[in-house]
Amino acid sequence: MNYKIGEKVTFMSEAGYAVIQSFKDANTVIIQDETGFNRDYPISELVKIQSENYAGGGYADKDNIEYEAEIKHTIKEQRLDFDTTDKQQVWEIDLHMHEIVEDDSAYDGGAKLRKQVREFKAFYKNARKNHIRKIIAIHGVGEGILKNEIRTYLDTQEFLEYYDADYREYGKGATAVELQYK
């Protein structure tokens, strides 16, 4: 991917953002991170930020347009640990690319991640709108980038608690979110 001096970028393996200051060599740039420090960084670990609305720590939706999830989610009925009365709906979403799009060959790594994050945000907002009390996001294990992006987004939301989903059912690749309402 071609980068230019002054472009905003985010990292594939850590939270935050930076601005490209200069090119050290063909594989390394000098960036200024959000804290104002300059450091060398491998070009292969950077992703362009496509929106000026980026606030750091995650991907902004382009132009703040409401994004409608294209992905199907599963609805289960189960008795929630925190509610012993009736069974409640639990929504589950699988964020693996092959579940989101039929052919992901047109997506590079950064575009895949942005698509997955947009799908999760739309899913989350839809669950809130429908007063769902628990959702499960299946993000896989991998390098943990998608999991980190999801949890960074959840940290900006109110009235919820999240944790690793049941290991027996999902392994280490899912996050459970309990939503609370006033």
Automatic annotation (TrEMBL):
List each copy of the Smr domain by range: 117-180
Q: Which InterPro entries match?
A: Smr_dom, Smr_dom_sf
Q: Signal peptide span per the entry? A: none
The record's listing under PROSITE patterns reads: SMR (PS50828)
* Recorded superkingdom: Bacteria
Pfam annotation, one family: Smr
> Could you cite one Gene Ontology molecular function of this protein?
endonuclease activity
User: For this UniProt entry, which segments traverse the membrane?
Assistant: none
Keywords (alphabetical) are:
Endonuclease, Hydrolase, Nuclease
Name-wise, this protein is: DNA-nicking endonuclease, Smr domain
Q: In the record, what lineage is assigned to the organism producing the protein?
A: Bacteria, Pseudomonadati, Bacteroidota, Flavobacteriia, Flavobacteriales
